[in-house]
Amino acid sequence: MDHFIYRGGQLWAEDVPVAEIAEQVGTPFYLYSTATLVRHFRLFDEALAWGPHLVCYAMKAASNQAILKTLAEEGAGMDVVSGGEYARARAAGVPGERIVFSGVGKTEGEIRAALDGGIRQFNVESEPEMRAISRIATALGVEAPIALRVNPDVDAKTHAKIATGKSENKFGIPIAKARAAYAEAASLPGLKVVGIDVHIGSQLTQLEPFEQAYRKVAELTEVLRADGHEITRLDLGGGLGIPYTRSNEAPPLPTDYGAMVQRTVGHLGCEIEIEPGRLIVGNAGILVSRAIYVKEGEGRNFLILDAAMNDLLRPAMYEAHHDIVPLIEAAPGVEMAPFDVVGPVCESGDTFAKGRDLPPVKAGDLVAFRSAGAYGAVMASEYNSRPLVPEVLVRADQFSVIRARPTFDEMINRDTIPAWL
Ligand code: LLP
């Protein structure tokens, strides 16, 4: 459920007509709804209310300071994967004890910064990384809380580029090697083992792969406890999918997910952490764009928008589907026609949809890409020297630009001409 709905024939974001924002901000831009963000965070929080838990928002999905602050004020923790994300989380007011640090290639500088600034736990993805954290923590005279990310070799049944829990993926320590890795962790100075971490992929539309992975984690918890390790936390990752189309079968709800977590690992008495990104922000954001031209091709019509693959990469990168809707609601019974929806970038891959049935659209009309809040703005670039797409946040009847569109001068002045030119 989201708060982008038609009322009186036009699309609203909470209590603001989206077209009004487009007039003031210009297109394209991302638009987020505070009510939807907060609602989705609370759904997860309530789904795990049966025991001690922390919902650590995976901020890679959308990392604007205003989004982070909104969630931090709800009590969210953060899952970060780089020094930049750690700094962003801290700048948004998230205390170190609510930040978990994931990622396969944490550098010495990143590890040091997190230990200096405070960290809930590192999710360690390899033995060499574990040794590096031990070395750095020992040098700083502190103890680093760690969980080892295990790779459970489970098929997440999602797009290959976003599956992470199979043995051929680069993530985590093979679960068969976990006992040996935990034994080494216990022997190293500067480390405090606090739990186990697992994350098997993104946009999962069934509970069954999660359930398989979590059962393996439950078994491993018992084995590690028998080996003498203190396992008090389980970080179960993110990955619960969202409905990208109205026609699709809806993925499981956070409540079903929470009940499954309780069923699979609830008996262990551990504190539960989860790292959802997409489900919190995906349907809390849209990308608003204006049609520049409608061009008649051979056997097809192109709808050429002012948004492009540099603004929303997902269709080009994962063949992802995003519903595209007009800001002025189509009259009931109006005839739909197929369009190839494209952007102005000089690549054929700059195609959002092929043969998409849309109500009549003409140059100048405004459209919205739904479900664009997650992995939208954060994956945008300035390719073709198109200014980085701005972001706007709505709360009830107010809106605010939370990242402004850079001017051409700002873009150009980021470059430096060497003295010899
Ligand atoms: N935790 C870890 C360790 C992750 O690697 C990820 C996502 C998450 C949590 C959050 O997963 P979520 O709840 O958002 O599914 N750019 C791709 C998605 C990449 C996901 C990467 N890892 C896309 O646009 O579909």
From TrEMBL:
Orn/DAP/Arg decarboxylase 2 C-terminal domain: residues covered: 30-373
Ranges of residues in domain Orn/DAP/Arg decarboxylase 2 N-terminal: 35-281
GO molecular function, one term: diaminopimelate decarboxylase activity
InterPro entries: Ala_racemase/Decarboxylase_C, DAP_deCOOHase_LysA, De-COase2_C, De-COase2_CS, De-COase2_N, Orn/DAP/Arg_de-COase, PLP-binding_barrel
Pathway annotation: Amino-acid biosynthesis; L-lysine biosynthesis via DAP pathway; L-lysine from DL-2,6-diaminopimelate: step 1/1
Residue positions, PTM N6-(pyridoxal phosphate)lysine: K60
Sites where the protein binds pyridoxal 5'-phosphate: G239, E275, P276, G277, R278, Y375
Residues annotated to bind substrate: R278, R314, Y318, E347, Y375
Co-factor(s): pyridoxal 5'-phosphate
Listed EC numbers: 4.1.1.20
Domain of life of the organism encoding this protein: Bacteria
Known catalytic reactions: meso-2,6-diaminopimelate + H(+) = L-lysine + CO2
Keywords from the UniProt entry: Amino-acid biosynthesis, Decarboxylase, Lyase, Lysine biosynthesis, Pyridoxal phosphate
Pfam families referenced in this protein's UniProt entry, alphabetically: Orn_Arg_deC_N, Orn_DAP_Arg_deC
Quaternary structure and interacting proteins, as annotated: Homodimer.
Function: Specifically catalyzes the decarboxylation of meso-diaminopimelate (meso-DAP) to L-lysine.
Similarity section: Belongs to the Orn/Lys/Arg decarboxylase class-II family. LysA subfamily.
Stored HAMAP family: LysA
Protein name: Diaminopimelate decarboxylase
Encoding gene per record: lysA
